[in-house]
Amino acid sequence: MQDQIPPPFPDHLNVDQHIAPPSIPLSSDQQYPKIHRFKFHGDAMEYFGIWIVNILLTIVTLSLYAP
């Protein structure tokens, strides 16, 4: 006599059923987000000063972790 193997899922959980979330209705008058472009409002000396400070802070930070 052969032993019958029970199915891996109960009868009410059918593996062949694909459950999908309900679709979201799309409206034709959908508004898209506005695009904001980056623009630099400064002069070269201001940018250069920020760049130098960043370089100096990087050197100080790396010197803290150096052996």
Count up the helices: 1
Query: Termini separation (Å)?
Result: 75 Å
Poorly predicted runs are none
Rg over CA atoms: 32 Å
Mean pLDDT across the residues is: 78
Determine the fraction of residues in helical runs and give it as a percent range.
Answer: 25-40%
Task: Please provide the ordered H/E string of secondary-structure elements.
Answer: H
Strand content: under 5%
Oligomeric category: single chain
Structural class: mainly alpha
Secondary structure: number of strands:
0
User: Outline, from the CA principal axes?
Assistant: flat
Instruction: Summarize the biggest pleated sheet.
Output: none
Protein name: Inner membrane protein YjgN
Keywords: Membrane, Transmembrane, Transmembrane helix
Pfam families: DUF898
InterPro entries: DUF898
